[in-house]
Amino acid sequence: MGGGARELAGYLLALGGWVSALAAAVLPQWRQSSYAGDAIITAVGLHEGLWMSCAAQSTGQVQCRLHDSLLSLDVHIQTSRALMVISLLLGFFGIIVSVVGMKCTKVGEEDPITKSRIAVAGGVLFILSGLCTLAAVSLYATRVTYEFFRESSVPINARYEFGSALFIGWGATGLTMLGGSLLCCSCPPKERRGQHCYRQSQPSTAREYV
What we know:
elongated, alpha+beta, transmembrane, membrane, structural molecule activity
């Protein structure tokens, strides 16, 4: 795979991961009612996310309510919120920086070395974004798992388990970090740098002899 094609593939993967992370941050299904156990309750399904909690009835009606107070939320929700916001900001800057550094764009094409370094910087931003998403999702999943097994006095079907947003977040982490890694491969080797400098010096040498 050529350098330009590799950069384009990495950019598209990272962009897809960033969009998936945005969807995971907005969705309220970070944890949902557990349907394990013998007496399954299906009349109302409860979902909770970083920003709101929802109740889905068997008739199809869904009622959502935003979290009223920020300071009254649990620490793991506040931390996951902050990490997801940082992740989205890093990914947004990575999108802009990567467009400038990619070989398929015309910006700064007179200096390919600097352009490649800019593409690498965009890849690093995407990798950091993926790490923040991974930390946020894993922290929340750890808390859900802890509460599920800690509350032994609560019936199993009244507890919470993983929601779909967690799996979307893990998928977003993989896409973003893979795309960022491909963009980081744009860094030119030292041999190519030397050849580039040598080719630039050849015309002046030839003119001196003429």
